[in-house]
Amino acid sequence: MTPEPFAAPILRQAFGMAFHYLPVPRSVAEPLLAAGTRRVVATINGKPFERGIQGGAAEEPYLVIGLPILRELGVREVDMVIVELAPHPDPDAVVLGEEFEAALALDDEAAERFRSMTPGLQRSLAYYVTSAKREETRIKRAIELTRKLRTRTLHGDRSDD
Question: Which end of the chain is more exposed for a tag (fewer CB within 10 A), N or C?
């Protein structure tokens, strides 16, 4: 099921954690969500990006659009874009990056814990590593994350006190 393309403005959430986003019409999002599809390939002005449909039942659905995507598209806040959504062919796929993959290969305990996490959490951790521009920073983050996975000291882990 591939919905019809739609036009949407680039908007910015001004309260809480600020971010840019694209509103998705309910008529487009609801059939995808009803079919169990949250991960999509969003083709924006002809360029594909892997995204997740955000928003709860009471919220309007939207796609988070980071600054790197805005720059790649050459658009800014309030610019209109043409969007096509298609179900992601492999919604549980996680791109680890070379540095994180190597660090996990060296730490069986961290790798086992990582594999036990949901694809969304895995994706978030992998993004933390791969989003760094410099190789040295990616290596540092990969080592840091594997240590935190092994010692159960990730943000949100409960202490044993």
Answer: C
Of 92, 114, 91, 119, nearest in space to 103 by CA: 114
Q: What domains sit in the chain, N to C, each tagged with a CATH number? A: 6-87 (2.40.30.20), 98-151 (no CATH)
| 78 exposure class (CB count in 10 Å sphere: 0-12, 13-18, 19+) | exposed
pLDDT, one tens digit per residue, over 97-145 is 999 999 999 999 999 999 999 988 998 899 899 888 999 999 999 999 9
pTM score, two decimals? 0.75
Angle, helices 119-130/98-105, rounded to nearest 10 degrees: 110
